[in-house]
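Let's practice the habit of predicting before peeking. Look at the sequence and jot down your guess about where helices and strands might fall. Then scroll down.
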Amino acid sequence: MTASAFAIPQLYRAKHLSLGEVRQAKEKMDARKRREFLTGVHRLVAAEKSRKALARIYDFLDDLVLHDHLSGVDETLKEVDVEELDPTCILGFLSITFPVRDRLPAWAPLLVRSRAACMKQGVSEDKIERLFGALG
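Done guessing? Here is the structure:
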């Protein structure tokens, strides 16, 4: 059972909230964490600290995948602004989620957005094919 699975019953008992209220509070907390994560990644890329950004991407998404919180992964993939990322970080979002891509409705659209963002950034079509060719 994941840490978040423990949190719902504990909140339910501790605060005497309805299960619906607890789920709503958890969703708000998850949305806040995603916004903070994405803002941090975008700031690191803007400061030309792509390696740190990539490490943060892998840590955040790997934790969600390992705890089978795929709805959180999917929401993150929907919300990421790939036009603010460099190709390395864009590829990070795709590669860390590649093993579970079939369970993420937002994965294929992210791949399309990622290719377009790289083209917009002036990455050659040949390099884009090398970067994304194995992914789909």
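How did you do? The chain has a mean pLDDT of 85.
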